[in-house]
Predict the structure.
Amino acid sequence: MSFESLQDFIAMGGHGPFVWTCYGVTILIIFYNIVQPIIRRKDVLKRLNRNLKRESNS
Amino acid sequence: MWSFFHKLGSPRWFYDIGGKWLPWFALAAGILLVTGAVWGLLYAPADYLQGNSYRIIFVHVPAAFLAQSIFMMMAVSGAVGLIWKMKLADMFLKAVAPVGASFTFLALFTGAVWGKPTWGTWWVWDARLTSMLILLFLYFGVMALQAAIEDANVAAKACAVLALVGLVNIPIIKYSVDWWNTLHQPASLKLTEKPTMHPDMLIPLLIMIVGFYCFFAAISIMRTRNEILEREKRTAWVKALVQTGGRNA
């Protein structure tokens, strides 16, 4: 372990704001990249299903 | 070999096999990213020059690697799509462009935030930073072109050409730190030389890089499968799949 205490870890020797901003934005971008295709898949399946039903009705 | 190539070109085959690989890539990415981040943040020693700010490297370098690799993959699939008229290659190119843009942004952003405590400035117009910004605009260009052209085949052709032309930028990014005077430090990792980093820093960095690539594999499979459903919606197998709610009957 490179840090003495939790405060030490958060402070990062004065570089805390820089380090934590970077990791925060990384998590946001990873999260977006996971969620976006999941939502899209649901959307596409729903839309195609609706189209199919309409076709079979007409 | 050729039968493999033909199978690979079949959207249906990719849809099935990709669905099987997806959970394993996702699992590997999850384990590697958590391990690498904990190791890099908590256990790797502080840098003797930069202190703790260097810990940004564990996300900055993998993001920058991916940003360039994704563009190269797009150019290769663009060429495959142009030469062999392989639809799957077009779909892949379209599907991963926004992912590439997001990782290029991440590399630029973390670079700027790292630059402030290290160089005393968020941004300089030097070769490495400018060529990375151009890469971001190339991704935006591919996405805009894709959105602007209605006909899927014409759009794919135009994007493939842009990806191939934009490839010129990749060696410029790579060698920019050698060709010009720049604030950016030289490459931390080289394939041909022994690494200059201490193993305690190098190992978590390598774990993060492999983790980022696994993550990209997982989400590019997800996105390409979505693209396949959309483009192949008139085929019998997609219709059957839609009726079962996306699960294979």
